[in-house]
Amino acid sequence: MNRNQFVKSLASAIVATQFKPGFHEAKLTAVPSDSYPIRFFSKPLDSYDFDFMCEILAECGIGGLDLTVRPGGKIEPEKADTVLPALSDKARKYGLSFDMMVTGFLTPQDPFIQNVLKTASSAGVKSYRLGWFDYDTSAGIKDTIKKYRQALIGIAELNRKFNIRADYQNHIGLRVGGPVWDLYDLLADLPSEYIGIQYDVRHAMVEGASTWPLGLRLNAGRVRSLAIKDFIWQAVDGKPQAVTVPLGEVMVNWDLYFRTVKELNIKGPVTLHIEYPLLDKEQEKLPLLRKKEIIAEKIRKDVVFLKNYLNKYQLI
Length: 316
Description:
By secondary structure, the chain is α/β, with parallel strands linked by helices.
């Protein structure tokens, strides 16, 4: 099937102020609603052309893109003013939303931040992920958080100007947000409509195997998007390491996770992160169409798993 034939067949299948202090804070039986729209973190497909990416996502039942707009990403920040609107228009032709993006921004002084935010907001992007802050152990934990809060205050002001929201993702390791608890102090009193949290349950479980629900509960009022992936523990070079695997294989307690999300009334886009190999070395040598089939099948399995859990807990 050539691209024109694919698009035609696909088309018939697609259904169709000022800040005030004091803020603390297999087969599917149904289709999730706009309360939890599913997006795809584009990193594993960034090396392919954009049509290839969109064809796969639309075929797999994903509603939109969480596109990398950062150095080495699908869109280089300095080219955003021309490339981003063009890709947004192209995504819509495939029935996909482009309303989330991933950046490396950490300061309002970044030379590209204003142009990227202005362009993205005009093109329909509603939220973006920030980069990560590193702890300065010489300054101390509390003073590090205070320092980075100042940067986020400036970023929040830019977000208000351009009507867009930034989310900070918890990650593994010694970065700010690794413990999850620290995000409460980092974001306290900042306007949640402009600065939120992208909660990554995989990373939270790696760092707090049994205590992760407490960090989620503490920050529930700030969680604005949900990053989804799974992992297993493996010995790599004689050391234990968390290795990302397809959903359900099998460390993340998905029932407890989605039950807690429902209880806490956390709502927002769900960004699917596929950070395991989509092709092995031999499959990389296959023709492009065959590679597309293999990639689509792997992504589709994760999408079905995710949608079934959203349905199971009536997050629709």
